[in-house]
Amino acid sequence: SRWYQRRVRGHHSGNLLASCSMDNTAKLFDIVSERCRCTFRRHSDSVNSTTFLPYSNILCTCSADKTISVWDIRTGLCAQTFYGHVNSINSISFNIQGSTIASCDAYGIVKLWDVRQVVEIDSFYLRAASGEFSGV
Fold this sequence. Notes:
about 140 residues, mainly beta, five-stranded antiparallel beta sheet, four-stranded antiparallel beta sheet, globular
């Protein structure tokens, strides 16, 4: 198959793994039973990264379709979608409180998102070569 899993992330329980794929899906695997528990289908392009909100049942995915989706892994339903990047999103992370998502796109634009209000908080450009950043 030409579709393949790109990355995996572990859940705090130690029993679950989330993967992202070029087939526009993310999957949740049960390590004990060695089975897929859920396939998350909402993105219209490759899913580039996943992350779990620490100590919760929330999974976040980002995609080349320029969106971020927040999922409830118990139901498999998308709870929120964030729009605002103009390039493929390659990386995401929650802060420890789970109130903010940081995302970085293919051009080095980092955006901070308020999870509760579903709005962009801030945006800046990372200059990888110099280690500097500037407001956007």
